[in-house]
TrEMBL record, chains A, B:
The Oxidoreductase N-terminal domain, residue ranges: 14-117
Record's protein name: Enoyl reductase (ER) domain-containing protein
Source superkingdom: Eukaryota
GO MF terms held by the record: 2-alkenal reductase [NAD(P)H] activity
Classification via Pfam families: ADH_N_2 (PF16884), ADH_zinc_N (PF00107)
Amino acid sequence: MASEGEGAVELRNKQVTLKHHVSGFPSETDFELRTSSIKLKVPEGSSGVLLQNLYLSADPYILLRMRNINDPNHYFTSFTPGSVLGRVLDSRDPKFKKGDLVDGEIGWEEYTLVTAPETLSKIEYTDVPLSYCTGVLRLIGLTAYVGLFEICAPKKGEHVFVSAACGAVGHLVGQFAKLAGCYVVGSAGSKEKVDLLKNKLGFDEAFNYKEEQDLDAALRRYFPQGIDVYFENVGGKMLDAVLLNMRPHGRISVCGLISQYNTEPEGPKNLMQIIYKRIRMEGFVVWDYTSLYPKFLDWVLPHIREGKIFCIEDITEVKSRENRN
Amino acid sequence: MASEGEGAVELRNKQVTLKHHVSGFPSETDFELRTSSIKLKVPEGSSGVLLQNLYLSADPYILLRMRNINDPNHYFTSFTPGSVLGRVLDSRDPKFKKGDLVDGEIGWEEYTLVTAPETLSKIEYTDVPLSYCTGVLRLIGLTAYVGLFEICAPKKGEHVFVSAACGAVGHLVGQFAKLAGCYVVGSAGSKEKVDLLKNKLGFDEAFNYKEEQDLDAALRRYFPQGIDVYFENVGGKMLDAVLLNMRPHGRISVCGLISQYNTEPEGPKNLMQIIYKRIRMEGFVVWDYTSLYPKFLDWVLPHIREGKIFCIEDITEVKSRENRN
């Protein structure tokens, strides 16, 4: 349904917006599906870029951004999702031309007029699946890389544990740690995920935390000599069990605490282990490390091209799109 | 009561020993006062050193060592106190001669025959009070130095918070941070301690945590712009309040969690702040840093000689000693 108007084709633009800040689990009623229209031309006088959005990445952390954040020291502000990969349809910015593939943080919609094109990055490598550009090749991959290598610096042969190991970040962390020569164990929440970790992703071991009565005992089984590096995605009881099983001078990189997002937080009772074992526990936010992105790409692209990294993707295609180019 | 026997004077040696491992608070009945005798001569064939013990330092961490510790990864083993400063009475080790002042980890007794003299260190500086050698000039001081400078690396002008700020380590941490040009606030448990911190030890501010209904509000009052460095001695509710008030990229050095030693541990509920604020939290044990001792002495001795560091000492003199030299 394209219509001509003031010299430019007008396209229907479906958008998903957030009606209000979310508390607890989000539900469909927190969102609104709107249809507006957008001109297939960057307005004169603007230096913007018009994108057709191809992939939108829905990441767990987005839930936190849908909440009401009042803290000025907070590293992000409340917003609607998300990270988008799109194709340039029109541009008045000399750095982008029609047909370029770019990614950036944009709304959840079919087309976007980006008025601050400096927030976009051009995708220069096209010999890998395009969808990887919202995952392993962008913030998700950089998160795994930074949390593992910059925060924890695992040495060859060290013992690495990853929770939520089948998650967007976790499944990369485990594979990155294997590439660094570590012994790697992951936890996940179903038999299928555990099988995937062991049989497809090359983890040395994996277990279903829901089937373990005693997480401490489970970790002792897989790490009789203790854990050197823990990539923390979940928090709560798992963190408590990990603290008991850390080796002296262990490192914990805190990427997420997803078990705590929707419940009354459970503080770890075994914090004394931080002293006994001289543990370093460090939270990080990938946006602080974007300067490492080129270094990360140099490291990860060859591994991807050689088929050494397997990416789990869960892609939902929006079939109702009418205005496809 | 000295008696001659096989060519050597024999001295009465009062000893305090631990009867059994302690659980919860220690009480007098956990200890036994024994009287034995010791010869005022290192036996032939031994390469030991005989000490008259002058000062014994009773530190909070000793409580933890009085408990039953079964973890082979643990940084210390169960034992009886303590850190002792003594004078050499006789020696068959060429590195020590009669009259030398030494310190080391010895039993709680009047005299000790040290059969492994390599565990002793000679005290080379005698122009400062001798008792400082069990405190600011030894492990206590090194603990404050390492936890503040090595773990947290405060920059001039940064905002430092110290809990248990009138404690053996805490009162030094605050003064060291002032010497480094920081803004320093301490918490303590009585009006007298708060006055001492503000009027004698040079803290910028101090408060009595027992009088605060809301620790978060108290910290916001003293740190409207947030805390860069927290020297953690207490844990529990204070840690939770601190996490809410940390600045981005704040550092927490975990020296002790004394609020947790005798109760069911209270885990911090605000751990998400570790991510939001990119906080680094690191436990440490001073024994890992003994190689820094000479560097520490070079730094601290001039400040002590110039009267820039005030040491709180709580000395109990054992009056019943009969065999004093």
